[in-house]
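---------- Forwarded message ----------

FYI, see the Peptide deformylase record below. Original note from H. follows.
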Amino acid sequence: MTIKPLIILPDPVLRQLSKPIERVDSDLQRLADDMLETMYDAPGIGLAAIQIGVPRRMLVIDISREGEEKQPQVFINPEIVKSSDERSLYEEGCLSIPDYYAEVERPAVVSVKYLDRNGKEQTVEADGLLATCLQHEIDHLNGVLFIDYISRLKREMVIKKFTKAAKSKAL
């Protein structure tokens, strides 16, 4: 397994639309393992393939708490098929927008259809942190970032801050 470098805002790659995965094979499973390793190293609870520069519709999640046994999950071609009218508010962060957090309101419950790491079709009914995490990572696959849910002024300030940081690193 290999830890991959993370794509950081304002990199335009984060706004790309990820392509569906045609075949689940050993290369894809290796990518899933690399993504999990990268996510754990960061450390984070979710990672979309686009965040390591791979525009394919796959994400990994592990919402187990520190000290608990790891519970890695792989979602290939995930699709929200149902979401509740009830809403929940979570403070979200993102490995591609380090050290920035904001409250985001999303549906409290979602039903997600996907392929598991063996290519078997699954559906999960998720609430709480898993529902939030799935929606956040699926947004990544569609070129959407959690800062798109905050006010325009705050979003512009965040983008400006990360653009300035990226320019100073390039010098």
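H. also flagged this: The mean pLDDT is 96.
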